[in-house]
Amino acid sequence: MENITLEKITYKNYIDVIWRLKVSRSQKNFVASNNNSLAEAYVAITNGCVAMPFAICKNNKPIGFLMIGYGMDEEDLEGEDPLFIEMVKKSYCLWRFMIDKRYQNKGYGRKAMQLALDYIRTFPCGKADLCWLSYEPENVVAKKLYESFGFIEQPQWYNGKEGEEIPALLKL
Ligand SMILES: CC(C)(COP(=O)(O)OP(=O)(O)OC[C@H]1O[C@@H](n2cnc3c(N)ncnc32)[C@H](O)[C@@H]1OP(=O)(O)O)[C@@H](O)C(=O)NCCC(=O)NCCS
């Protein structure tokens, strides 16, 4: 039986998360490397912000990575629309999400997403009304997956610039 779980990053799983979990070449533009994400988590955590990185495991073996944030740092949001900043300050965020290329398209991403939302809905950092995330406009797999969980695109916060991601919101 396949048991998909979210596990804290530990000495036991971090080598796999950093070195072995990769997306395909055509997906590299869609998500930061897990190395970078863990470095960002370190910066957030050591500067009074929230980052909750998890290994997505199948029968205890890491097959993916996700990171949840809460009320991101204002400095990091410089130049954004004030309404967007207001929303972000009091919302959860699905900050990073990837399934290793060898394990994609087998339903594990959907299962991990459900587990992440179940966890967010326990409000581990305090009550919030919204969860947000963002994706590259050409990432149709992610867009469809998020839509199926009720995320609604927010085009008013997307300026169409190169490298810009489209934000989407879910009511918790
Ligand atoms: C997005 C991602 C996490 C989805 O994980 P996954 O395990 O492949 O997803 P699942 O197998 O659970 O499938 C989820 C949905 O996407 C669809 N899907 C998955 N891979 C697909 C593919 N290659 N082509 C078309 N549809 C695909 C499935 O049909 C499924 O929909 P369904 O449940 O209605 O059938 C994974 O593709 C990934 O890591 N992509 C690269 C990184 C990335 O884009 N991260 C998101 C950044 S915003």
Describe the structure.
This protein is 28% helix and 27% strand. The longest helix has 13 residues, at 108-120. The model has no long low-confidence stretch (mean pLDDT 95). A hairpin with a 2-residue loop joins strand 2 (50-58) and strand 3. With 172 residues, the protein is of the alpha+beta class. It has one domain (4-171): Gcn5-related N-acetyltransferase (GNAT) (Aminopeptidase, 3-Layer(aba) Sandwich), CATH 3.40.630.30. Residues 23, 27, 30-31, 97-99, 104-110, 135, 139, 141-142, 144-145 line the site of coenzyme A.
Task: Give a short synopsis of this structure.
28% of the residues lie in helices and 27% in strands.
Key terms for this structure?
172 residues; alpha+beta; Aminopeptidase; seven-stranded mixed beta sheet; 27% strand; binds coenzyme A; MshD_Acetyltransferase; Diamine N-acetyltransferase; transferase; acyltransferase activity, transferring groups other than amino-acyl groups; GNAT_dom
